[in-house]
Write a structure and sequence with these properties.
4 copies of one chain form a homotetramer. Chain A is α+β, with helices and mostly antiparallel strands. Chain A contains 3 helices and 5 strands; from the N terminus they run βααββββα.
Chain lengths: 141, 141, 141, 141
């Protein structure tokens, strides 16, 4: 499937992302979740870059990750993203991260986001962005 | 206060830790919390490096952060760590991150940890480490 | 081209990789170069993970990057890797990083590597790895 | 010595900065050099944050690191910074990174910088910043 159509991000664990325990460091997962969210938006016809260019950021207000199994260097990881709640002042996403070759569940996660203006003040997500995003709501996996 | 005695880690927000929103990226907070935990152990006479040298890792099984106010480049951030639950197979820590100059609360967080052996298998925390750690339990701030 | 056959790594600039100048932070380029090197080895039938599993690391001894044009969030970056010198005790790689959509040269780079054993001591690269790697030598682009 | 007066940055190697070789990953050194540069400016009465607030960035155009000895988790690393060349359109810094407890040289490095405006265009460093910076020129260690 071409990248633009695939809502699931597939990424290789980078060597720089490992730690001395020999596994991907836990602080890398929020970075993967973010990249997964951007890819999911793209596959749904929405560009997070364009949202930012319009002067709107989706600032992270809450972050949660549960780690099940470690990811290792060079593993192919599939990041599944889902929008679970959409209000003009708060969006919530949920994530499932799987090892791609055998489907092992590596981690689940969630983020909450507050739309903010370039000065960092909370704002309503403009209608032109809110409508197409809210249409993607998928409360249950 | 000399570094070895101060349970509170103070760190400067690095330029590399900012993102294009002009604030510290949210994935940096778990890194700060980890560094705060290591410093808190040190101030309490415990070296996380020695724990690792003994073949025990405190693998992160859960991570949670709530972001209140953004941290900016060069801000001095104080990371307060507290052990809130201690069992031989699970430890839980809580964190408060404050802007040091005016005491603004930037974020709160929590982590849960599973003691693991060098092969990554869950294990009981050896008594020699469990006892001194459990003695630091401080269930309420 | 399927990933396993393509010696050029294509990656999206992650939001976490930007800084408050609004561009990819310069310390991310060595990470991209490393990922490019791993992909180039894979496309040439060599797994860096297997090299590591054999107890050999290619520790970086020198790093050099020249930045021409900034990379921005969500840009697709193509990392071209080339092995420019191969001795059993030192490998040298060169890199060209291009913006994929218009071919703009973003940066050039180079790394030198010392094969090391699990204790971090310099060693000769074992023949079984040295021979296939040296066969990939491509002293000029 | 209070932080504001010490041109040498001292930092602890973070767990997140290690990789599966059990040492600090090489891409962390440019981050440390950057933090060292900011501290060196501060100790010399100059705030990099204020430079940025004035709409001037010192974009990195060249980066070079030579790695001598690995840094390990929890090592205290001293970053020595020196300005080796100062022209209004290019600054060059050199770095020495030492393990603080025994003075072992871990790495040496260098960066070149181009003053840029908020749109990323190269510019002359304004006189009000150029003069005090150039006064710190120290061509030989």
């Amino acid at each position: 499937m071409p990248e633009h159509d695939d809502p699931v991000l597939r990424l290789r664990v980078r060597f720089a992302e490992t730690d001395q325990m020999g596994i991907a460091h836990h602080a890398v997962y929020p970075v993967w979740m973010e990249a997964g969210r951007v890819q999911w938006l793209r596959a749904n016809g929405l560009s997070y870059r364009s949202i930012e260019d319009d002067g709107v950021s989706l600032a992270v207000s809450e972050l949660e990750v549960r780690f099940r199994m470690p990811a290792r260097f060079d593993d192919l990881v599939a990041v599944h993203t889902r929008l679970v709640s959409a209000r003009s002042r708060r969006l919530r996403f949920a994530y499932r991260l799987l090892r791609d070759d055998d489907g092992t569940l590596l981690a689940t996660g969630a983020t909450a986001h507050t739309p903010t203006d370039p000065e960092g003040r909370a704002m309503r997500l403009p209608e032109d962005w809110f409508r197409p995003i809210a249409a993607l709501l998928e409360p249950t996996f």
